[in-house]
Amino acid sequence: MYEWLKALHVIAVISWMAGMLYLPRLFVYHCEAAPGSPQSETFKVMERRLLKAIINPAMVVTWIVGLYLAWAGHWYMAGWFHAKFAMVLAMSGLHGFFSARVRDFSLDRNTRSHKFYRIINEVVTLLMVGIVIVAIVKPF
Fold first, then answer.
1. How many C-beta neighbours within 10 Å does residue 95 have?
2. Could you list the pLDDT tens digit for every one of the 140 residues in the chain?
3. Closest Cα partner for 46 from 14, 22, 12, 15?
């Protein structure tokens, strides 16, 4: 059962990361659309659906299954797990930040530039790379 749950965890992580990488890209394009325009309204729908239908459920499954795997495999004592856990907490914080930005865009209250969203997209990438390396290589 452990291996099946690990497979589910990886699938959930892939889904979560796909959404976390795509959502800030939508924000980049949304910044360029005039508030209230048909284009802006389309981005609002896309952002909301991506968050509610993919990113949120994938994060929940990632956390629930991941915590079980850490407990069942006794990984919670390993140094690499502590590093991974810290990076996953940071990724979850970004998730919350993105959720707030979806709300801001939905109310036409975005205050950030497209450059900001391009940069924050790279933060997601760096965290993802760090998590994968630590989880697979287990360097400490």
1. 19
2. 999 999 999 999 999 999 999 999 999 999 999 999 999 999 999 999 999 999 999 999 999 999 999 999 999 999 999 999 999 999 999 999 999 999 999 999 999 999 999 999 999 999 999 999 999 999 99
3. 22
CB contact at 8 A, 43 and 26 = yes
Cβ(39)–Cβ(96) under 8 Å? no
Name which of 4, 46, 48, 15 is nearest 128 in CA terms.
15
Continuous H helices in 32-139 = 38-49, 56-72, 79-106, 114-137
Residue 18, both tokens: 């796909």
Number of structural domains found in the chain: 1
> Angle at which helices 2-31 and 56-72 pack, to 10 degrees?
150
Q: What is the C-alpha separation between 1 and 63, in angstroms, rounded?
A: 17
Q: How far apart are CA 9 and CA 16, in angstroms?
A: 10
Among candidate residues 102, 10, 101, the one with its CA nearest the CA of residue 58: 10
Identify whether the C-beta of residue 129 lies closer than 8 Å to the C-beta of residue 69.
no
